[in-house]
Amino acid sequence: MSENSSSTKINWTKVLWGGTVLTLLAIISLPTLIIFIPGMLPTSVARICDRTKQKYATLCVGGLNICGVFPFIMKLWSDNHSIAAATNTISDLFALLVMYSAASFGWLIFLAVPPVVSTFLDVLAQRRVNILRGKQENTVENWGPEVAAEIDGIDADVTVSPE
């Protein structure tokens, strides 16, 4: 079986459990689902778009998306847990703006943090190379040029990348 076909394979156990949970929630707490499903749409899009095994985009977007949806679910639970209150919340442009803006911050974190971390690791690796070159020069001073005979072909300006 090819790698591409195994990544698109449907896990029917997860689908069955997810359907069961959604059905139970619809029976028990429909107003919460009325807010939760449209509010968490950016997380669903991130899950579909994220093809990596670790699902980092889904985690970043989902974590902040739930932070944007949670205050409105708490307001629904504490005030009036009814379908009318849920539809009023979902039809409120400010509520949708808060929910989707929180998800957009998740996308921003997902897109901005890895290059910053990569640059930081590159600087640390280059610093380590410079420290080792200094120790190498001290060793050559103390023991003579014979100890460095095998590394004469290495360029002194080599940059090291953590990738």
Mean residue pLDDT: 87
Q: Low-confidence stretches at least 5 residues in length (pLDDT < 50)?
A: 1-6
User: How would a textbook summarize the main sheet?
Assistant: none
**What's the overall geometry?**
elongated
Strand residue percentage: under 5%
Rg from alpha-carbon coordinates: 27 Å
Secondary structure class reads mainly alpha
Write structural notes for this entry:
The protein has 163 residues and is mostly helical. Helix content is 76%, strand content 0%. The protein is built from 7 helices and no strands. The chain has helices at residues 3-7, 12-28, 30-39, 41-49, 56-78, 83-91, 93-143. Helix 3 packs antiparallel against helix 5 (56-78), helix 4 packs antiparallel against helix 5 and helix 5 (56-78) runs antiparallel to helix 7. It is elongated and about 85 Å long. The protein starts with a helix and ends in a 20-residue tail after the last helix.
